[in-house]
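Q: What does the predicted 3D structure of TonB-dependent receptor look like?
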Amino acid sequence: MKRNVLIVAGLVASGVVMAETPLEVDSLIHLNSLVVSANKIEVNRNSVPLTISVIGRSQIENSSESALLPVLSEQVPGLFVTEKGITGFGVSTNAAGTINIRGVGSGNKVLVLFDGQPQWAGLFGHALPDTYVASDVEKVEVIRGPGSLLYGSNAMGGVINIITRRHHQQGRRTQARVMYGSYNTQKYMVNNGYNVGNFSSFVSINHDRTDGHRPNSDFQITNGFANLGYRFNDVYQLRGDVSLAKYKFQNPGETFNPIFDNKMDVWRGTSSLALENQYEKMSGAIRLFYNWGNHEINDGYYTGEDPQNYLFRSTDRNLGVLFYESFRLFEGNNFTVGIDYKNWGGHAWNQMNDGSADQEIIDKSVNEVAGYVIMQQDFFNKLGVNAGVRYEHNSSFGGAWVPQAGLTYRPFEGNVWKASLSKGFRSPNIRELYMFKPKNPDLKPENMMNYEISVGQSFLDGRLSAEVTAFYIDGKDMIRTAMIDGNPLNVNTGEFTNKGVEAEVKYQILQNLSFTTNYSFLDQSDPIAGAPKHKFYAGATYLPGRFSFHLAVQSIFDLYTDEACTKQEDYTVLNARAAYHFGKNPDKGLNIFVKGENLTATRYSINDGFPMPKATFMGGIEVIF
């Protein structure tokens, strides 16, 4: 298998692949220079000690993916997302879409944000992978390691900050795409950006559906998104957005234990409103957000069982107010203070099919209030010091302190060294505290300390860059189910240590030819499913005239596919895309494209009992005007 990886990687390095226009080339070279997730204000990536990966708009577009997470699973070292079919992740029993960063993530330990606002289900605490739509994303910043100092609970293993699209140019731009492929998979997308005077808007609609590559694995989803903004003057602007998703799907169960009529009907929504300020020496915002969900689930039945006589129903919410302000007190200094208020929870019940009274399960909410401060100081344009602390008070377990500190050192042009230590924590969710038999209202938060050091170097005026990171994680108080006096009970008992290395190289070989590769190694004292020991990706891009091509390979080794960690999987997949552009303007006109995934028809599973499809193909037409 490893020999095959080297052969395919060689093909990628020398092969025909997709490229950007000259403007996109410049964007690629300077892509990682500015980030907002580290300090909540725009700072140079090389000035903060955290390890941050940035995935830009062109990388997302080149994938032709409608879902965002598969793109991140390839492009970000140390990050892996579980999948089980041609499209769609699902919720509840046998769901995919679990995000692990450095072997931490299962059980809502990686926090997903929309423009800095948390996105997760209020009752069960899990992420919402089917609602993260690629066409609505401007770029993604991934903190590989704890982000709890700024973002609180669930940012224990890392943070994925999805920065939504805005229309920056004056005038209007409309994009529409239609795709069709294997297993009657259909994908439709249309979006429109409009900018006039001080007003800007971006609106999109997506619809995906598939019959699935297995019987009873059909999936369909419709997403709508709108982002509106108005600038009052040079200091203040108001921004608001809303995202809605309606999806239905069926879970066929494991191949060795099929389930019947396990069907889910889900509504999800999120909205936010922010007043932002930008003074000469200070900037910040006050943000209000509200996420909600409505789930109707038929839990299904197995061979020899009777159909269920109820539907599981739940509504959940996750709302809050975030306030922060950053001050530039003197040369090279940034000082940020913030206050967060969050309320999350929901209502769950069994709706009886015979019309009898509903069976109540839970109707509960939890409050969190936090304050934090973070300071960054640069000295002589060489040395940077970053430190901060957060205090979080939770209505179920009380208070928690979260420290973070780090250094950056830039000894010469293009070179940067980083070192940091940071604490991550995760509050127990409603299910663990109050739902079902193992519940325990006395649970404390899970905790971990992350220690890391990295070195990065750029060459050839930034066209070639490389970064290597080593990390060590010490986790404790993990929530596990134990037998106490003959009864199952959730308790804070688990411990783990993870250590590893991550590497990434990007090379703009020519103006129309680029190459990127990443590799991560993970050693776990207490292995979990969905966190491979070895993860390798290589891809490149090339644009000869109006043609564009993309070729990429991903190899995964020592991946546990079952929760008991008794089954392992090794696999390599090869993906390709080719397109042709009609029109003189590269940003307008007609594009036709075809793409193939798993072109070598590798047989593998990421979730045990859910074999991934063999070779799949999609074709599409896109028009931009």
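A (community wiki): The structure tokens above were generated from the sequence. The two ends are 46 Å apart (CA to CA). Residues 1-32 have pLDDT under 50 and may be disordered.
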